[in-house]
Write a structure and sequence with these properties.
The complex is a heterodimer of chains A (304) and B (418).
Chain A lengths: L5 H14 L2 H4 L2 E4 L2 H10 L4 E4 L14 H8 L3 E4 L9 H8 L11 E3 L32 H18 L4 H25 L7 E4 L5 H7 L2 E5 L10 H11 L4 E7 L5 H10 L3 E4 L11 H18 L1
Parallel strand pairs in A: 1-2, 1-3, 3-4, 5-6, 5-7, 7-8
Chain B lengths: L1 H17 L14 E12 L13 H4 L5 E3 L4 E7 L4 E12 L2 E13 L6 E9 L20 H7 L4 E10 L5 E9 L14 E12 L3 E14 L20 H15 L12 E16 L9 E21 L2 E22 L4 E11 L2 H4 L5 E12 L2 E11 L6 E13 L7
Antiparallel strand pairs in B: 1-2, 1-3, 1-17, 3-4, 4-5, 5-6, 6-7, 7-8, 8-9, 9-10, 10-11, 11-12, 12-13, 13-14, 14-15, 15-16, 16-17
The chains are: A alpha/beta (304), B mainly beta (418).
Chain lengths: 304, 418
């Protein structure tokens, strides 16, 4: 048998992909949230990728609806946050979809948050704390350093599931990582003015973003994680932050703006409606999402 | 800039080294998952007298008891045994005639590793007839099951048996299944090894981002044999104390024998010998703005039952049952409900259910019930509900039922079925 170099193999494969219909070889990927659909798309652009949620839906509160069962039934793998973000709906889908490839502990079950170190991991959790995630904050996609680790793990996993295209996934990872590293340092340069700024935010959805940018979330509109803002809690916040150098009140596209607007009105601090994931404000990929978020935050600094 | 670059490198090194293999799940917690549901309440009502004289399972058909109750408080354990098998056990508290019994509602094993979209479940489980039947009652939006469920299947039909189902590899959700049961629970009363069968199909999909739907069809076929009745129905006017089931059964036979002098037929569920076929259609439609269920949503659902009864009514005479009245007729019934959630804390709903029994039971009277409910959710895990029911389940009854209920879940966060 003639030995063919890996590069040639990859070339042949790439050629094959062009000749055959892309669907015939492509992975079928079920993403729980748009950020994972976008990341999967960077690594496997030919794959058939479906996102179970949009940027305008609270990922904690999703219906395990029939269409999602049907999608998961046909998936080769899922890419979800894990760390209990989807605990209210993903297990129901796994149970109903009758797809052995996407059971927990199978290669087709990819939990992004479990690939990285998570913040706020709890040793013990009681419901008195609200709807907290004992495994730590699952909203990991807004830290570019963690995203890179996740991308590497995901490319590796794709290669295991679909070894024929392993080289292809690795090449896509390489290209993505190079662009991502460059963008990350650009963003870090751009966001210097944000360092040390204080914000009030709705939920801990931006925990990793703030950690990365050295922004401090001094208060939460939620009295406890998962509980909607109450007037008594907001009144308390008002006293707490009055006169403080607050950059603004942050909330995301899937959250009700009323509480943030009320607090803004009372304090004069601006509301900062921040994109949360891909698809928000027309962002088409992860690069655009980060760009958009940074622009929104910088805009708040400039108007202050 | 430099500092950041270093931190990226360090972070990558640390995280990269720590990156585990895929032997993990998205959930924390113990093995097995333990969850307890506290379901307690208080109801003001007059005594339950039956539903249009239909042959019912009285203890599961009456709705909430008068006064304080803890009905359907449940304890469940579940976990995967291994890559292939998943198991679950659910016990519930049930109150009957002021006695509290523990009922084993589920004890099943289900495959997780079969190919081609197939799965098998075996043991005791809730049948996949209709929309509500396979769900635990504490997840319902109302205090009790709709009148049609209470009358025809004793609020829910569960039994010992096996299910094979298949999910089609299509964009539209299609699930086909077949179930075979012992027929040992109401509405079945069989003496053969497979005394009840169910063939069902479920379909569903989305309409844009904001709407989703599911529809189902089921054909449940049950056998009924004199003397095999496992339910507590004994006609509608016998009051009796009993110490346990077995004695109860005996009491019951004596009493029926005795009663016969002044009642020709009471149409008790246990007095029937023959077949009953249940044809059930269900539909549910849900809406939330942009598909975001956090703040606002609307759920409309409805189910229709057509029950074909073919057999004999009879009584026991000196240990022998006798066929006395030929019965070949049908009942039907339905309900519709709507529940609107307008904030994370509040939702309200309305429901109407009506039954059209065969003439032999109610001589044309159609039992009906109308419900209004209001839910307050302090958190995702606790609900306080008030419900008003206009109960017209018997011809001479017009009862106003008021209930207040608390439902809370402890332990493992159960996933919510659609």
């Amino acid at each position: 048998m003639v030995r063919i170099s890996t590069k040639t193999k990859a070339g042949l494969l790439a050629g094959l992909i062009c000749v055959l219909s892309p669907q015939a070889m492509a992975l079928n990927i079920f993403a729980c949230e748009p950020e994972w659909a976008a990341l999967a798309g960077e690594l496997a652009p030919e794959a058939e990728i479906y996102s179970a949620t949009t940027a305008y839906q609270d990922p904690h509160m999703v219906q395990a609806r029939p269409s999602l069962i049907a999608k998961l039934r046909r998936a080769d793998m899922f890419v979800c946050s894990g760390a209990e973000l989807e605990i209210g709906w993903l297990p129901a889908l796994q149970m109903k979809a009758n797809n052995r490839d996407v059971r927990d502990n199978q290669p087709g079950a990819f939990y992004a948050a479990l690939q990285v170190e998570r913040l706020d991991v709890m040793q013990s959790v009681t419901r008195l704390m609200g709807d907290v995630h004992g495994m730590g904050n699952p909203h990991v996609h807004l830290d570019p350093r963690r995203m890179l680790v996740i991308a590497e793990a995901l490319a590796k996993r794709m290669s295991e599931i679909d070894p024929a295209l392993a080289e292809h996934y690795q090449q896509n990872l390489k290209a993505f990582a190079a662009r991502w590293r460059q963008s990350t340092s650009d963003w870090e340069a751009m966001t210097k003015p944000l360092q040390g700024k204080q914000v009030v935010a709705y939920h801990t959805s931006y925990r990793y973003l703030f950690d990365w940018l050295s922004i401090e979330q001094v208060a939460d509109l939620e009295p406890k994680p998962g509980l909607p803002p109450t007037s008594s809690h907001l009144a308390g916040l008002l006293n707490q932050i009055k006169g403080q150098p607050i950059l603004g009140v942050v909330y995301s596209n899937y959250q009700d703006p009323k509480a943030a607007e009320w607090l803004s009105e009372k304090t004069g601090f601006p509301v900062i409606p921040l994109a949360y994931t891909v698809g928000a404000d027309g962002t088409e990929d992860l690069f655009a999402l980060y760009q958009r978020i940074i622009e929104q935050l910088l805009h708040a600094v400039e108007s202050a | 800039m430099k500092k950041h670059a270093i931190s990226v490198a360090v972070a990558c090194a640390i995280f990269g080294a720590a990156a585990p293999v895929y032997a993990q799940t998205g959930q924390s917690g113990f093995n097995p998952n333990i969850s307890a549901v506290i379901n307690v309440g208080y109801t003001d009502r007059s005594d339950f007298e039956g539903i249009g004289n239909l042959p019912i399972d009285e203890e599961h058909a009456g709705g909430p008891d008068e006064g304080f109750w803890v009905d359907h408080t449940e304890l469940a354990l579940s976990a995967a045994f291994d890559d292939m098998f998943y198991g679950k056990v659910t016990t519930v508290l049930a109150e009957h005639d002021d006695e509290t019994e523990v009922e084993l509602e589920e004890a099943f094993v289900q495959t997780m590793g079969m190919p081609y979209g197939l799965s098998v479940r075996g043991g005791r489980f809730l049948s996949n007839i209709g929309y509500l039947n396979s769900k635990h009652m504490h997840t319902d939006s109302f205090v009790d099951r709709p009148l049609v469920y209470r009358a025809f299947v004793g609020s829910h039909y569960y039994d010992d048996g096996v299910r094979l189902n298949w999910v089609a590899p299509t964009d539209t959700y299609i699930e086909l299944g077949v179930e075979g049961f012992k027929g040992g629970q109401f509405p079945a009363a069989a003496d053969s090894s497979i005394g009840a069968t169910n063939l069902y199909a479920k379909f569903g999909g989305d309409i844009g981002d904001s709407q989703s739907w599911q529809a189902g069809l089921a054909w449940l076929s049950t056998e009924h044999v004199f003397g095999e009745c496992g339910t507590h129905d004994h006609g509608h006017d016998d009051e009796h104390d009993h110490e346990d089931h077995d004695e109860h059964e005996e009491d019951h036979h004596d009493e029926e024998h005795h009663d016969e002098d002044h009642h020709e037929f009471e149409f008790g569920a246990c007095d029937f010998d023959g077949d009953k076929d249940f044809y059930i259609a269900d539909f549910v439609w849900k809406w939330a703005p942009g598909g975001n269920y956090k703040y606002q949503s609307l759920t409309l659902q409805g189910e229709y039952f057509y029950v074909d009864e073919d057999g004999w009514y009879g009584h026991e005479h000196e240990g022998e049952y006798e066929q006395e009245l030929r019965h070949d007729d049908s009942n039907s019934g339905w309900y519709v409900s709507g529940v609107y959630r307008w904030s994370p804390n509040w939702s309200a709903g309305v429901r109407y259910s009506e039954i059209d029994p065969a003439d032999v039971y109610s001589e044309g009277y159609k039992p009906k019930a109308t419900d209004l409910m209001l839910d307050w959710n302090y958190s995702h895990f606790a609900t306080v509900r008030v419900q008003y029911t206009r109960d017209e389940s018997m011809e001479d009854l017009e009862d106003d039922i008021f209930s207040i209920q608390f439902v809370g879940t402890l332990g493992a966060h159960g996933a919510h079925l659609y």
